[in-house]
Specification:
422 residues; alpha/beta; TIM Barrel; 2 domains; 8-stranded parallel β-barrel; 17 helices; 43% helix; globular
């Protein structure tokens, strides 16, 4: 059942209450310049120092027996030209590094390989994750071998099937492949990442008994539903290590587009509230995810030193979000839900008989409009070119809009995404 949208008056009321409730006890000086993603420019500029002895805290990663830092370095950027980010991440104890065979056409893995060539003694200190978009054992083997060569290592700690939306791909054939790769000591653990139908994938994985880790879209917009809560609980009970991604919950539409049409600006309201609290909205979005102890780590694409420092500052800080802070986050999520794709493609894509990869399209637009990364947006759509989805009659997409719980303007967004294919 859809919840009602919070109107402007109620959102302003919550923000007004927050100002009155938090006059006492606000914590200045916490925020570090930068944000958790390449998507905001209005963060506070105060710069507290991070002491060399301070390292990002760790949590147990499921049943693996491994502890990982609660902040992971997402490698979806040009790492060969940003080696300093790896150096600083290592210094801060951000030693969970995530990449993929496809990222930057292989340059992400190559960049991490450059680091390990210079610092071979540090390889065992890094919890290294890479992913494959392949689905057949033959192709998975070929991609894993190439990844190992690029990464200049004999093994990866965790190997993911990249971006699954249907747990039926987790076949016995895939299980046997994972067991063989473990026996050959090419991978230590196996799992998958998921941007869509996350709850369905978690529920299925919890019953399989051979999934070691999952990286999933998990943020303040999707974490509150009963089904997501139950799915996280089931996966954790099954001993699966969980890594959250897309914690900033950025929309496929350009920031503020919908709000300005309605005469509202929830982003500015949130910025004002959290700046008065002493940290940024981006840091608050991290902190609310870390409150769930079942989440072992948050993977963030930290393109710059300032972004890395902002996230490390958030991980080190002991300040807990107040109930008003959470109310502001959840109120903004409700007020702007018609801008955000929650990844439930089992509804929208089924409505158009899977002729349009709506989930991939929404993610591509998010990369371009919210992160400013058009090359990654094009890369995200590259695997779906054979469907020629941009030629579909927009009227057909009205069925997808009706099926969308958040009522996204899917038809116009698909037309916008078509410009990336041209």
């Amino acid at each position: 059942m859809m919840r009602r949208l919070i109107d402007r008056r109620e959102f302003v009321r919550i923000l007004g209450l927050s100002g009155a409730a938090l006059v006492v006890g606000s914590k200045a000086g916490f925020a570090q310049a930068g944000t958790t993603q390449q998507d905001s420019t209005n963060a506070p500029t105060n710069r507290p120092s991070i002491q060399p002895s301070q390292k990002v805290p760790k949590r147990k990663f499921g049943k693996t027996g491994i502890e990982v830092p609660i902040l992971a370095l997402g490698g979806i950027f040009d790492i060969p030209t940003n080696q300093i980010v790896l150096e600083r991440a290592y210094e801060y104890g951000v030693t969970y590094w995530d990449t993929a065979y496809s990222y930057q056409g292989g340059r992400s893995e190559q960049g991490m390989g450059m680091f390990f060539e210079r610092h071979p003694e540090r390889r065992k200190e890094i919890f290294l994750v890479t992913k494959t978009g392949a689905r057949s054992p033959h192709d998975m083997t070929a991609q894993l071998n190439e990844s190992l060569e690029r990464l200049k290592t004999d093994y990866v700690d965790l190997y993911f099937l990249h971006g699954i939306s249907d747990p039926n791909v987790l076949s016995n054939e895939i299980k046997e492949w994972a067991e063989k790769a473990k026996a050959e000591k090419k991978i230590r653990f196996f799992g998958f990442s998921t941007h869509a139908n996350m709850e369905v994938c978690l529920e299925a994985a919890a019953k399989l008994g051979w999934i070691d880790g999952i990286m999933l879209t998990y943020n303040y917009r999707v974490m509150t539903t009963d089904r997501m809560k139950a799915a996280i609980e089931a996966a954790a009970k099954a001993g699966i290590g969980l890594t959250a991604m897309k914690t900033q919950a950025q929309p496929p539409r350009r920031r503020g587009q919908q709000s300005q049409e309605q005469g509202q600006d929830p982003q500015e309201a949130m910025l004002k509230h959290f700046t008065e609290r002493g940290f940024t909205p981006e840091q608050a979005r991290l902190k609310i995810v870390w409150e769930n102890e079942h989440i072992a780590s948050i993977c963030s694409a930290m393109y710059t030193i300032s972004v890395l420092q902002a996230n490390v500052a958030a991980a080190l800080d002991k300040t807990q979000l107040s109930w008003v802070d959470k109310a502001v986050l959840f109120a903004e999520a409700e007020q702007s839900k018609c801008e955000y794709c929650a990844g439930c493609t089992r509804f929208c894509e089924a409505a158009v008989h899977h002729a349009v990869p709506i989930g991939d399209i929404m993610r591509a637009l998010m990369y371009r409009n919210s992160y400013g990364d058009e090359s990654l947006a094009r890369e995200t759509l590259s695997s779906s070119v054979s469907l020629a989805w941009w030629k579909i009659n927009p009227a057909i997409l009205k069925a997808a809009e009706q099926a969308c719980p958040n009522r996204l303007p899917i038809a116009s967004l698909v037309q916008e995404a078509a410009t990336l294919i041209a």
